[in-house]
Amino acid sequence: MPTTSSLKLLLELAQQQTDASAKHLGKLNFQQQEAEKKLNLLLQYRHSYQSHFQNFTTTGIDHIEWLNFIAFMDKLDAAITEQRQAVLHAQNKRSAGNEEFLSCQRKLKSFDTLSQRQQSAENQKQIKQEQKILDEFALNSFYRNASSVKES
């Protein structure tokens, strides 16, 4: 069984690793949320621009304005497609970060369990040792009392 100091060191390292992993997962969650916000803004902007343009077309629109609208919508759709990929990438990174965090937590729990078992074994050993000392003391006391009774 590992020594107390080496197990304690492993437990501390596992705790540090879990803390770092949790912090990293927090950053990944934030990045995913930001990517999703940006995508939603692009989608809202597209909807708003399309609605505005439809209102504008009721009064009439020339060919150049129509071409500009089509070109702009194509660029906006390309940006939306790119942002959807960014959201998907951020989700994948967050999932990987979550798996890493869970792995670190399992490792920490394992070391903690080992540490508790070792502490329990040491406590049992100490209890047995104390009981042995008490038994020897009681036996010696009994023999002294028995000897003094025989002499009287």
From TrEMBL:
Membrane topology label: Peripheral membrane protein
Superkingdom to which the source organism belongs: Bacteria
Record flagged with keyword Transport: yes
GO cellular component terms attached to this protein's record: bacterial-type flagellum; plasma membrane
UniProt-listed Pfam families: FliJ (PF02050)
Single GO term (MF): cytoskeletal motor activity
Database matches in InterPro entries: Flag_assembly_chemotaxis_eff, Flag_FliJ_proteobac, Flagell_FliJ, FliJ
Keyword Membrane: yes
Biological processes annotated in GO: bacterial-type flagellum organization; bacterial-type flagellum-dependent cell motility; chemotaxis; protein transport
Location relative to the cell: Cell membrane
Keywords assigned: Bacterial flagellum biogenesis, Bacterial flagellum protein export, Cell membrane, Cell projection, Chemotaxis, Cilium, Flagellum, Membrane, Protein transport, Transport
Membership in a protein family: Belongs to the FliJ family.
Stated name of the protein: Flagellar FliJ protein
